[in-house]
Design brief:
With about 100 residues, this protein is mainly beta. It has 1 helix and 6 strands, in the order E-E-E-E-E-E-H.
C-alpha cells in the first residue's frame, strides 16, 4: 500500500492513502490518484486531499506493502511533544 505522510507546522501528522502523486496548485499542495497504468497528473486524475503549502513541513512517501499505514514520524507526535523532523534520518557529518 502506498501512502503519503504529511507533517504540518503544528506537528500533527496526516496520512493520505490511495494517492500516488502530488503537486502544488497555487497555495495548496494536492494529492492525486492517477489511476491504473498512468504516471502523470492530468485531467483524468482524482484529487484525494489538499493542504495549504505554507503549513507543510515534511512530505514522505511510504510503501508498506500490505501492512497498515501508521505514522513513521517520532512518538512525540502522539503526545504533542516537540519532534525533531530529522529524527531517524541519516545526517551528513563533516570530517
Amino acid at each position: 500500500m502506498v501512502a503519503y505522510e504529511i507533517m504540518l507546522k503544528d506537528r500533527t501528522v496526516e496520512i493520505v492513502e490511495a494517492a500516488d502523486a502530488y503537486q502544488q496548485e497555487g497555495q495548496m499542495t494536492t494529492f492525486f490518484s492517477t489511476g491504473a497504468g498512468r504516471q502523470v497528473v492530468d485531467c483524468w486524475s482524482t484529487r484525494v486531499a489538499s493542504f495549504r503549502t505554507s503549513e507543510i513541513l515534511i512530505v514522505r512517501r511510504v510503501d508498506r506493502g500490505d501492512e497498515a499505514v501508521a505514522p513513521a514520524f517520532g512518538p512525540g507526535d502522539q503526545a504533542g511533544a516537540p519532534v525533531d523532523p530529522l529524527d531517524g534520518v541519516a545526517r551528513l557529518r563533516s570530517a
